[in-house]
Amino acid sequence: MSTRILHCSTSVENYNICIEQQVAGFSHRGPQPHDLIYLVVKVGKKTLCGARFKLDKLTNLKPWPDGDRYKHTLSLKELEYCKPFDIALLSQVGGKSWSIKYIQGSKPISDQLACDLLNKEFISNKIDKFIPFELDTFILPGTEAKALVDLTDALIELPPLTRDSIKIQATISKIGEGMGLKVWLPKSDRTRVFEVWVPKQGSVLNDLPLNYDFDTLKTIENIDVLWISGRTIIRAFEVEHTTSIYSGILRMADLMALQPNLSIKAHIVAPVERKEKVMHELSRPVFKHMLAPSCTFISYDSIEELAQQKMLKFIKDSILDDLSESALDSITKDAIV
Fold it and tell me: pTM for this one?
């Protein structure tokens, strides 16, 4: 087993997607299953680490916007999180050329002192949840130290149950349960969702009752909420998190690409003020033929209003068709204009 650093350069989006979809990509085939990886991204002038994991099985998933550049992708296991810390501390053992020694090409770190220093710093900052960075995270020169403290403290001190996206994820689950459907949640999200919603016994599935290949199941397992009846996915929901809308849409696109004959009604759920952004993404040429016909926008407000219905058990899931908005309508209007 080797210890390596995977540097996402300045792509906060790629950094967040690695953890969201539990997959790591490399430009060469050096990294192997069971290798320990420290995930880092450059924010301002600092190179920050907020997660580490071990590599698991080879996969064909490449969920990043620039996924084609990664020739070697593996799923993740044993994920751990920490308050983001600057790995420039490696200069203490590697000198001025520490980045070349330890980061370049995700090479194995042969210096045990460097491995021990990383481990010690990670353990001292360890927390129980991932801290994603906003896509527009920007730190002014000269304010890095204070800005980093403010950023991490704000995210850590915010109780998970107050996060709007977690509340909506829980609300969607509650609605599905009320309609008599089974619910699937990513296992990494369940602790946070269950702080908001207490499901009835047996309503949340422990295993997906689906027979698909490994890559398809890995994609499906990471979708924010699934409503399932028997062995059929009735609805799939991606709730906007602190990462970009693009990553949720990309996960849906991956699913449709892996199983083009799969008939699933998919929804991107976001605040109403983000509707235009969702429609824009769904209307991209790469998505509009694959996703626009079956993936729609639903606002947070619509989900919350539906949850207030007292007789959900008598309401069909098709009500969501009335609450959702299709990008196809926007595409058609643009074409007419």
Answer: 0.58
